[in-house]
Design brief:
This protein has 750 residues and is of the alpha+beta class. It has 30 helices and 12 strands. The longest helix has 34 residues. The structure holds zinc ion (ZN).
Length: 750
């Protein structure tokens, strides 16, 4: 959730990839062995030695296993956090530095203690256990909100520090700024002169925030616990890969599809030949939890609006945007409009290509076929295969997971000065979970630990995300808590006794995206837990991940991470270029989809606030679903009847409210960053860009405005609108630069 620590713990530590894919086809090949085809390894013993030597603290999280364990732990935690709250408010603090330290240690503790609850909930628990964990988590968050965030005395103490700001160093100030942002959600703007009146109002705001909290949790639980089963015949599933079908359960002659699972949905949408099947599947997917959630969503919007009004804001959007790069709704409006304008030509061009392809298949070349929402993924896949002259599955033998990781690590070493090594003997919750150490190449110093839980399991959530298990923090003793990040994914598992492969399309893009979050998290140079790692400004979070995601479409990167499982022969240049071109197709659609969702978000949290005047004028208020349908139809593709995407999608209703556009911003910023690299003498990539990201973004962390980070990275004010406007022609720009060998005037000083 935006700028909150509550379930918004997620906002601090957990970021989803929205374009996640799962393909169910592992070729049956032998085991990889060659040293150059796998990540370099170090022993657990050696690793422990390094940790000791560098005075690092590495508390590995222990995962609660039983309900009793959960409850006991929850009780201990609340006692401990009450202690923190008391310490912060008591007047015996020696100085302001101590207050900052306590606040920061509280945040470090929160991240470290709650991580295991989320691991248990998302990766391990069955449905019944998930309910128990949710209950305990709700109880914990209620406590934290009431006794910490709801505590006006702590809020006041934080506000009063501003008086002594000059006594604090840069990072301490950033901690306070970031913390005040979080408290903002539970208090009316603090007004010194109006202290008494504030009490009543503060209580009201707190109660509203807590009910909002509960509704948001309820909303995502409704989605998580819903199922959407379809039973389809072999004929209806024409075109769907055999490997995938073979893994499904059957009832008589019908296959059981679990549409709530992303990889079931995605595989069908891309491969099922029959349009009617895809329509049925899409409707089933977007009907998940729709009944239960549509009222809840309405209430969520109402409360958000009321909270914004309590803080003298016209609508929630403006309230949520304070302190962001686009600080109010008109700035965001301009940014989205620029994005729409910039993407329009490319989007329509792609659409015409898809329509022509469909017409041709239908045997009518003259009339452009009508393209429906449920045709898009399928037609894009077909077009990509046509460009590639092959299927993505057929190229998988060049992308064994271990070879891809090795290639990624070589890339990070060369361009970021970061080295990854695998520690093979760590015992986690599942034997498939892997651990990697990240070190600074120049000094050999440990930066952090990356854990990768790559494959689906029966109770594991079907998304791809990144979670902080321990945030970097330098203690008073000088000891440093080593940052630990977990990436949880659902990539194609290997068949028994064989190796895993990564499909060189969305799967590889998702791996790069999540690894980007991971590198941001453990590559941090910040010594305060509240602002280290991924705890950047909310609107910067998706920039590093988008930067790395774009690599997955780069021909040179594709060659770097590929190696045939038998020969370690990389993809030849021509195939890599074709693959890159194939993957570039559909990007304008992906952008249009992001822009559409951003617009929906914008409309729900902005314009809707005018409802009262609308009521006065006798104009009925549109429901969120109506707004959603209308915008989709206008900007992208109309949804099938009976589909309610808003109610079955937790992003806008929960974690990232009012900030969906950060994905788009991330894409815009990362495209500029990539262009920056292209200009350097060493070809496609540039160590200078890596260095800039590390020194100017990862090193400053949170509490710093995104505008300042982008300014530091690009060397001048970052103009989001003009960057968005230009985004759709990246290849052309790049070519010009390469040809004349020096920066073109329009991009000078990027
Ligand atoms: Zn992300």
């Amino acid at each position: 959730m935006f700028a909150r620590l509550d379930k918004g713990y997620k906002s601090l530590v957990r970021y989803l990839a929205i374009f996640a894919v799962w393909i169910f086809s592992a070729p049956s090949f032998a085991q990889l062995a060659e040293e150059s085809m796998t990540p370099r390894k170090i022993s657990l013993e050696y690793f422990r030695g390094l940790v000791l030597e560098e005075n690092l603290n590495l508390d590995l999280p222990s995962i609660p296993k039983t309900s009793a364990d959960l409850q006991k732990r929850a009780g201990e935690l609340t006692d401990r956090w009450r202690g923190f709250a008391n310490n912060i408010t008591n007047n015996n603090l020696a100085n302001v530095h101590e207050l900052v330290r306590l606040v920061d240690e509280f945040n470090a503790d929160l991240i470290f203690q709650l991580g295991p609850f989320y691991v248990a909930h998302d990766l391990l628990a069955n449905t019944a256990q998930k309910k128990t964990i949710s209950l305990e988590l709700n109880r914990i968050w209620d406590f934290i909100i009431e006794e910490y965030y709801g505590n006006a005395r702590i809020f006041r103490a934080l506000r009063h520090i501003e008086v002594d700001f000059e006594l604090l160093d840069e990072q301490e100030r950033a901690v306070i700024r970031a913390e005040i942002q979080k408290f903002r959600f539970y208090h009316r703007e603090f007004d010194e002169e109006d202290d008494d009146n504030d009490e009543e109002e503060a209580k009201r705001v707190l109660i509203l925030s807590q009910s909002l909290e509960k509704l948001e949790t309820q909303f995502s639980n409704n989605i998580d616990h819903s199922t959407a089963h379809l039973y389809l015949t072999k004929e209806e599933l024409d075109g769907v890969p055999e490997d995938f079908l073979n893994q499904l359960t059957k009832k008589k002659d019908k296959f059981k599809l679990e549409i709530q699972q992303w990889y079931h949905y995605d595989t069908l949408m891309r491969t099922a030949r029959r349009s009617k099947t895809r329509k049925t599947v899409m409707r089933a997917r977007f009907d998940i939890a729709s009944e239960a959630n549509s009222d809840i969503f309405n209430s969520i919007l109402e409360i958000r609006q009321t909270l914004a009004e309590s803080n003298d804001q016209k609508h929630y959007l403006d309230w949520a945007l304070q302190d962001e790069l686009l600080p109010n709704s008109s700035k965001l409006d301009a940014f989205l409009s620029a994005g729409e304008k910039g993407n329009r030509t490319a989007f329509l061009a792609e659409r015409r290509v898809l329509q022509a392809q469909l017409s041709k298949r239908l045997g009518d070349k003259k009339t452009p076929a009508k393209l429906e929402a449920w045709d898009v993924a399928y037609e894009i896949e077909k077009k990509r295969e046509a460009i590639l002259g092959n299927s993505f599955e057929n190229l998988e033998e060049y992308f064994p997971l271990d070879r891809v990781l090795r290639g990624m690590f070589d890339y990070f070493e060369k361009y970021f000065g970061l080295q990854f090594e695998e520690i093979p003997d760590m015992a986690w919750w599942d034997p498939s979970v892997r651990t990697f150490l990240m070190r600074e190449k120049a000094t050999g110093k440990i930066k952090g630990v990356q854990i990768l839980d790559p494959f689906p399991r029966p109770n594991k959530e079907r998304w791809f995300w990144s979670l902080t298990l321990q945030a970097r923090l330098k203690r008073l003793t000088g000891q440093v808590d080593l940052p630990v990040n977990l990436i949880s994914g659902n990539w194609t598992p290997p068949k028994p006794g064989q190796i895993a492969f990564i499909s060189p399309g969305e799967d590889l893009a998702t791996l790069c995206h999540e690894w980007g979050h991971g590198v941001n998290d453990i590559g941090t140079g910040v010594d305060k837990a509240s602002i280290s790692g991924m705890r950047t400004s909310d609107d910067f979070v998706e920039t590093p991940s988008n930067f790395f995601e774009a690599l997955a479409r780069d021909p040179e990167f594709l060659q770097m991470v590929s190696g045939h499982y038998q020969t370690n022969e990389p993809l030849d240049r021509e195939t890599a270029q074709k693959l890159s071109k194939a993957l570039e197709f559909g990007l304008a659609h992906a952008r249009q989809d992001k822009l559409t969702k951003s617009r929906i978000d914008f409309a729900l949290h902005g314009k809707r606030a005018r409802k009262e005047s609308q009521h006065e004028r006798g104009v009925g208020l549109q429901t969120p679903d109506e707004i959603d349908r209308k915008i989709r139809k206008r900007m992208y593709y109309a949804m099938p009847e009976g589909a309610f995407p808003l109610s079955s999608f937790s992003h806008i209703a929960t974690d990232y409210a009012g900030l969906f556009w950060t994905y788009y911003l991330g894409e815009v910023a990362s495209a500029k960053m990539k262009a920056l690299g292209k200009r350097s003498p060493d070809g496609t990539f540039s160590a200078a860009v890596g260095q800039r990201l590390i020194e100017r973004a990862f090193a400053v962390g949170g509490g710093i405005k995104t505008s300042r980070i982008l300014h530091a990275v690009f060397g001048r004010n970052f103009n989001a609108c003009s960057a968005a406007l230009r985004l759709s022609a990246p290849t052309k720009v790049a070519r010009t630069r390469k040809d004349d060998g020096k920066p073109s005037p329009q991009t000078k000083g990027l």
